[in-house]
Amino acid sequence: MKAQEGMSLVEDDLKNPCLDYIRYTLFSQEGYVFKLAGSDKTYNTFEELKTDFMDGHIPESVLKESLTDEVNALLEPVRRHFTEDEHAKQLLAKVTSWRKETLEKTSSLARLSLDGVLEGGDAPISVVFAPQPSEYVRLSDVLEVLERLRAADGHRVLWLEDWSARCLGSAGGSVECVKGFYELFLHGLRSMDAELMDEVQILWQGEAILSGASDYWTSVINTGRECSLEAIRRALPDGENLDTAAQVVVSIMHVGDVLALAGGKREAVLCCGPYHRNLHNLASEHFERIGLKVPKIECTEMP
Predict the structure, then answer these.
(1) In terms of Cα–Cα distance, which of 286, 293, 290, 285 is closest to 264?
(2) Could you tell me whether strands 34-35 and 42-43 are parallel, antiparallel, or unpaired per DSSP bridges?
(3) C-alpha to C-alpha distance for 261 and 255, rounded to whole angstroms
(4) Which top EC class is named for this enzyme in its record (predicted)?
(5) Residue 56 φ/ψ region, left for φ over 0, alpha for ψ in the -120 to 50 degree band, beta for the rest
């Protein structure tokens, strides 16, 4: 099975998508060992496996079977979580029931609508995206977000990208670490300006997505159909290379986020720093493409 020319994330004459999955999904795990189906052979590094495959020591059918087995093993804890954990079962039931519903659409445009969630009446909204989680909360990040919120007009919204952070593996990629980072970040904001934060609406990306998962993921998929890999590369922060599939997913998820927040009838301003500037530009290009009013982007770099 050969991938199409434009689908490979890295330059590779072989162009086999199975190798991309093995490299970026499986070997991205620390200490991972790949087990070859039907034998006792194991591989500790991707390069070792790739060399044997290219030299003809691993048939393509065996590579596919091994990949299927390994991905299933990777997903099994997630499957158990959604069948054994009561809270997870409830969330899954909500998502499943939403997909089964047949609702009359007022528009052919598929997007997650947060119009009923966003507060502030008909006032314009100013959206600030919180920074990606890391090992520790930087004072400079807290101060920058505070300054953007203070300078914002209308109804202020702070967007926490918890699902995108997990997809990128930020702060280790665990639910607890990502949530812990944002809770500490919010504590820092409230400690430094409680009065301001009382006026800010805080939205968690994951919770928002689950409120309308079908429309959200449809908007993300539609964005992916329209975006080239070159457009994704341009959307990354300056100086960052496109190395993983997670970067592609998170970039088009960002467009889905902006559609949910700024795709309604209210005037919207995206207040950001350098990290989100190119991602906001990607969203703006998509807004123009589908005929929506483009939200204003205000990018500021703090001294």
Answers:
(1) 293
(2) antiparallel
(3) 10
(4) ligase
(5) left
125-299 has which fold? Answer: Rossmann fold (3.40.50)
Phi and psi at residue 105, in whole multiples of 5°? -85, 140
Q: Long-range contacts for 9-12 (Cβ within 8 Å, ≥24 apart)?
A: 9/229, 9/242, 9/243, 9/244, 9/245, 9/248, 10/243
* Residues of each domain in the chain carrying CATH 3.40.50.620: 125-299
pLDDT string in tens for the chain (303-residue length): 444 444 445 444 556 788 888 988 898 888 999 999 999 999 999 999 999 999 999 999 999 999 999 888 888 888 888 888 888 788 777 776 665 554 444 445 788 889 899 998 889 999 999 999 998 899 999 999 999 999 999 999 999 999 999 999 998 888 999 999 999 999 999 999 999 999 999 999 999 999 999 999 999 999 998 888 899 999 998 888 998 889 999 999 999 999 999 988 899 999 988 889 999 999 999 999 999 999 999 987 765
Number of residues that make up the chain = 303
Q: Range(s) for CATH 1.10.240.10 in the chain? A: 5-84
Burial letters for 131-167: b for 16+ Cβ neighbours within 10 Å, e otherwise? bbbeeebeeebbebbbebbeebebbbbbbbbbbbbbb
Q: Note the pTM of the prediction, 2 decimals.
A: 0.65
Per the structure block, which two tokens stand in for 151?
A: 């300078």
